[in-house]
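User: Working on a comparison across species. This one is ABC transporter ATP-binding protein from Pseudonocardia humida. Can you predict its structure so I can line it up against the others?
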Amino acid sequence: MADGLVQARGLTKRFGRVEAVRGIDLDVGRGEVFGFLGPNGAGKSSAMRMIACVSPRSAGDLQVLGMDPDRDGPAIRSRIGVVPQLDNLDLELSVRQNLHLYGRYFGLSRSAVRAKAVELLEFARLTERAEDEVEPLSGGMKRRLTIARALVNDPELLLLDEPTTGLDPQARHLVWERLYRLKREGVTQIITTHYMDEAEQLCDRLVVMDGGVIVAEGAPHELIGRYSTREVLELRFEPEHRPSGDVLSGVLAGRVERVEELPDRLLVYTADGEAAQAAVTAAGHRPLAALVRRSSLEDVFLRLTGRTLVD
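Assistant: Here's the predicted structure for ABC transporter ATP-binding protein from Pseudonocardia humida:
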């Protein structure tokens, strides 16, 4: 990838005997929004920390902005922006002072920092709160300020670790709009997220990681087409009248790819949810509720990584 901002081959990270990242290959192109998905412990954050030049790789090759993080860490860090999973703002300073102080870390002049702060306050919709201390701000405001702060050096690459975790729907959508605006402006972004709808909305391409390896890669719609069906029929029954997955598979033979049994419902993966529902009813099975929906990235994620909780 000639214009790749991040290129990795056999990238590995070990912590003692634990291999958190097990020889992954990555190519992130200029202007792309690239996502890491995976359960806890999959290796996403370890990979991000190596790209951010704050954790040395154990093995493999890694280039960020055409440079080697082991040799050129400071030069790379001066050209990237990082939004950590947890906000690390200076709570006793004002919103504007947080931006001024961070800009000075990058060697910007006072006049340049003042001008940049005005621009970023408008970007984050925080102009009216510029002189307020950070501590009493809402979670959404703090998150927007953290993102704005990461842009103070006009980064070529922006790394965002779960950018909307803990935010209410309104705040999440505002952050999405701000990130989409950055994409239009050509800022390359790498995102980790647990929100499947966020990944579908924002990412041009993504990888699903599990156990330190990449188990799938592609655009969201490509992954849905590859690992799921066009539609999913969700069926809920009275416990005493609930058919097994095997029984439904028999009833729907030739109409479905698979039937998944969950404690509260059955999921029927099919190209035509309404036809499958009609066949179930015609066979004498009367669900309490039935819902036909399109397959989502969440269906892909759970199929690839399982439904078992990982601590």
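For your comparison, note: Residues 229-294 form a domain with the Alpha-Beta Plaits fold (CATH 3.30.70.980).

User: Helpful, thanks.
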